[in-house]
Design a protein that fits this description.
Number of strands: 9
Protein name: 2-hydroxy-3-oxopropionate reductase
Strand order of the largest sheet: 3-2-1-4-5-6
CATH architecture of the largest domain: 3-Layer(aba) Sandwich
Order of helices and strands: EHEHEHEHHEHEEHEHEHHHHHH
InterPro entries: 6-PGluconate_DH-like_C_sf (IPR008927), 6PGD_dom2 (IPR013328), 6PGDH_NADP-bd (IPR006115), HIBADH-like_NADP-bd (IPR029154), HIBADH-related (IPR015815), NAD(P)-bd_dom_sf (IPR036291), Tartro_sem_red (IPR006398)
Family: Belongs to the HIBADH-related family.
Pfam family, one: NAD_binding_11
GO biological process, one term: glyoxylate metabolic process
Number of domains: 2
Length: 298
């Protein structure tokens, strides 16, 4: 029997499944719930328990972790007679690791407090590879005491774990992260097309660029996607489109100008409108190729 907190995990997608599995490897008892039967089977095969509903998953949990696509999904699983707040025990800690609007996180924390449930917003960065390797960056918002209590668990999921401020702060930092990532991918995509059209050995060029000031985690993680045109989703264009909406709206609210970010947000939206929303966000390369009179086979 483990003496570690009992964990309920809601949402077992591209990121959620490997993250939940890393908690199991670290010795945490994990009970999962999601809508996809194959994801529940995967959890069970890796040592987790399967619940038939949110209520069943959270009823006995010390910690509840949610990892779903956007604010509407967080609200759907949190509120209402079948939701987390209706069935979690008083004193439980709810850690929402989804990427949602800061205001949604603030509202959830207030609603949960009325039920005696503690809340952290703790979105992540690092993509599917970071989730699998347990090296995610985790940016948290909420009370310091709750963050301190959650830290040992979060250390099983990530490498850089920082409390950024009160409720909603983690989501604000995640929005900034997504702005930087999108602009970086777009710049890399433009460089790839420029290099190829110039007749340069692309692989060699990206290697040397990666070793200089132009190097970045984005370039290191996405270099193979660019060179092989492998756009299988690690983080989908659809989700980055959602995140760019979050950051542009939040920036407008506080009066921050995003001149380059606004352009890249439109490029992401354009790619999605052309039917590429299900591809990895490195597929921004496809948009640059189209503008340059080239097409890919993927």
């Amino acid at each position: 029997m483990s003496n570690l907190p009992k964990v309920a995990w809601i949402g077992l997608g591209i990121m959620g499944s490997p993250m939940a599995e890393n908690l199991i490897k670290a010795g945490y008892p994990v009970t999962g719930y999601t809508l996809e039967a194959d994801k529940l089977e995967r959890l069970a095969k890796n040592g987790g328990s399967v619940a038939g509903s949110i209520a069943e998953a959270v009823a006995d949990a010390d910690v509840i972790i949610t990892m779903v696509p956007a604010s509407p999904q967080v609200e759907a699983i949190a509120y209402g007679p079948d939701g987390i707040l209706a069935h979690a025990r008083r004193g439980a800690l709810l850690i929402d690791m989804s990427s949602i609007t800061p205001q949604t996180s603030i509202d959830l924390a207030h609603a949960a407090a009325d039920k005696g449930i503690r809340v952290l917003d703790a979105p992540v960065s690092g993509g599917e590879a970071g989730a699998i390797e347990a090296v995610l960056s985790i940016m948290a918002g909420g009370d310091q005491t709750d963050f301190d209590a959650a830290r040992p668990l979060l250390e099983a999921l990530g490498k850089t774990i920082v409390r950024c401020g009160p409720h909603g702060s983690g989501q604000t930092v995640k929005a900034a992260n997504q702005l930087i990532v999108a602009v970086n991918i777009q710049a890399c995509a433009e460089a790839v097309v420029f290099l190829e059209k110039s007749g340069v050995d692309l692989s060699a060029a990206l290697d040397v660029l990666g070793g200089g000031l132009a190097g970045s985690t984005v370039l290191a993680r996405k270099k193979d996607n660019f060179t092989t045109r492998d756009f299988r989703p690690g983080f989908r264009i659809d989700l980055h489109h959602k995140d760019m909406g979050i950051v542009t709206d939040a920036a407008r609210t506080v009066g921050a100008a995003l001149p380059v970010g606004s352009v890249v947000a439109q490029l992401v939206a354009s790619l999605r409108a052309q039917g590429d929303g299900g591809l990895d966000h490195s597929a921004l390369l496809r948009g640059v190729e189209r503008l340059s009179g080239r097409t890919t086979g993927n």
